[in-house]
Amino acid sequence: SFLLSCLVVIIGSLLWTASAQQDFESDRERVIEIYKNANPDAIGDSNVNFLVTFLDKYSHQLELTPLQRCQSTDIVRQYNEEKAKQPLVDGAPPQGGWLSKLVRAIVVQIGIEIAAEGVKKAIES
């Protein structure tokens, strides 16, 4: 029964890892689709929000230059700080229109840069 428990845990871990990899690949493809050859003015707030969430979730796994890594960390922090300052509307955070032009421009620029490089995933250690 101990062996069976161990086997169940191992299989569960493998399935979770495969699912996480699939989530990354799906999100990665979406970032590339949105930002590769994009017109910065045509990228909507929902896609900016998606990229910030992607960077927050996966930046430690991405193959980024030191400058891109620093920018990603800074922009996620700035984005979260700006979002936290927004007043609640009927008990919910605002859905859009609150991003400053500077934060939005930096997020879009990072998205275009990493999409142009194919959003490479670093080798997992």
Question: Can you describe this structure?
Answer:
By secondary structure, the chain is mainly α. 67% of the residues lie in helices and 0% in strands. It is built from four helices and no strands. The protein has helices at residues 2-35, 45-58, 66-85, 101-116. Helix 1 (2-35) crosses helix 4 (101-116). The longest helix has 34 residues, at 2-35. It is globular and about 60 Å long.
Order of helices and strands: HHHH
Radius of gyration: 18 Å
Low-confidence stretches: none
So how many helices?
Answer: 4
Strand content: under 5%
Specify the helix fraction band.
Answer: 55-70%
Number of strands: 0
pLDDT average, as an integer? 78
Shape: globular
Distance between the termini: 32 Å
Determine the structural class based on helices, strands and strand pairing: mainly alpha
Major β-sheet profile: none
Question: Topology, pairings included?
Answer:
Elements: H1 2-35, H2 45-58, H3 66-85, H4 101-116
Helix pairs in contact: 1-2, 1-4, 2-3, 2-4, 3-4
Q: Can you tag this structure with a few keywords?
A:
125 residues; mainly alpha; 67% helix; 0% strand; globular
Quick rundown:
67% of the residues lie in helices and 0% in strands.
